[in-house]
Amino acid sequence: MNIPVLLYMLPMTAVISLVYSASRFEDTQAIIAKSFRLFAQISVFLLGILLLLYLLTVKL
Amino acid sequence: MRADSASLLRNFALRLQSRFMPAQKPFHPEELDLRTPWLAALLSWLVPGAGQFYQKRYVKAGIFCVCILGTFLYGVALGEGRPVYSAYYENRDGQIFRKRNYGYLSQILLGLPAMPALLQSQRLEASVMNGSLLADPLESEFEGRILPDRDADDNAAPVAVRGTIRLQMEPGPLGPEVRGHLVGQVVETGEAIDITLAEYQAASAPPVGPPIAADPERFVFMQVDDINEAPADLGRHLRGTVPRSFVNWYQVPLQDQELQDLNSRLGKRWELAMVFTWIAGLLNILCIWDAFEGPAYGIRPRPPEEAPTPPKMPA
Which chain B residues are closer than 8 Å to A11 by Cβ? Predict the structure, then answer.
């Protein structure tokens, strides 16, 4: 199956968020809440970089 | 008017915040028994989450184990089982150079799942030093083709065959040589074949692949010596593969030719496979740290129990 390379970002970001949050907190609710928030932050940051690179490519 | 707008805006922002980002309950510092921290850290290095399991923090053990091991195994699957290796061998100017794989420094942070690579590196070197292609007779399933002779009719085409192959070392006129037997059938027509095989006397390639190599398939490169049963006009050159056992290819150091093949065949998938296994190893640092020190926020380790003070003796 040919998966677009960008889609690999999603499980990787989710795993990183979850493991990082689990190393910060002990309470399960806090781990889940924080990991959702971190997932959103990382995704927005990466998509922002992607958009910036795309715009630079178009301009060039 | 302006003050009303600002107040409305602030209320709206507060409502949004309370809707999407509910205030987290303040953490009450509670006691956490880390048991023997260094042992927990060691267990977490060996198997992600094992240290937390030992500390009876089962939810976190599950999170670490599933996430980190899952990432590692997914990377291994993406790279067809070969992105974890401690070294690779480069053939340059007729000499073989051993090169370290620095990515392995990250993979070994995962402990046991990445350790076979160290063992396989030693096994490969011992096997190369031994130099024997077939220490024991080989009997295995075979898939391949029989190619026509060069001077054969132009219409002759390769014939796909499968069956059971037996190979062993036998004394020959110039020393020990590989000889064998293939019993099977032609894939397209189902006709039976029963042929005797011999190695080429002046071939540059060996008749059979090495017993230990980073490839699940072991090639066979022999000539048809005698035909007991086969369709007419069968060629004389046998090319194919036999399966290599899992312990003889998993995490075995790669040759640079195999690396190039993986890079060209898998492309970005190969790079992603490496990245997934590296990140899994790096994430395990957080897991080891958590087992040793506890979580970074909100919890403090249980203080050591104070020895009970002896009751004062009445004067």
Answer: 71, 74
Exposure b/e, B168-189, CB count within 10 A at least 16 = b = ebeeeeeeeebbbbbebebeee
The domain locations on chain B are 26-131+253-302, 141-248
Residue A7, domain member (yes or no): no
Predicted pLDDT of residue B168: 93
Give start and end residues of each alpha helix (H) in chain B: 2-20, 37-46, 50-54, 58-64, 70-78, 104-107, 116-130, 256-266, 268-293
Residue A29: which residues within 8 A CB-CB, separation 6 or more? B25
Structural domain contains residue A33: yes
A20–B63 C-beta distance less than 8 A: no
Q: How many domains does chain A have?
A: 1
| CB-based contact B297 A15, cutoff 8 Å | no
Tokens of B276: 């997934």
B313 or B107, higher pLDDT: B107
Q: What is the ipTM of this complex?
A: 0.93
User: What is the mean pLDDT of the segment spanning B256-279?
Assistant: 94
Interfacial A residues in 1-60 facing B (CB < 8 Å): 5, 8, 11-12, 15-16, 18-20, 22-31, 33, 37
Residue A9 falls inside a structural domain: no
Q: How confident is the model at residue B96 (pLDDT cuts 50, 70, 90)?
A: confident
State the best of B28, B56, B297, B300 to mutate against chain A, taking most chain A CBs within 10 Å.
B297
Q: Do A16 and B283 touch (CB under 8 A)?
A: yes
Q: Are B192 and B173 in contact (CB under 8 A)?
A: no
Supply the mean pLDDT for chain B: 87
pLDDT score recorded for residue B28: 47
Range of the domain at A55: 26-60
Rounded to an integer, what distance in angstroms lies between the CA atom of residue B144 and that of residue B228?
Answer: 19
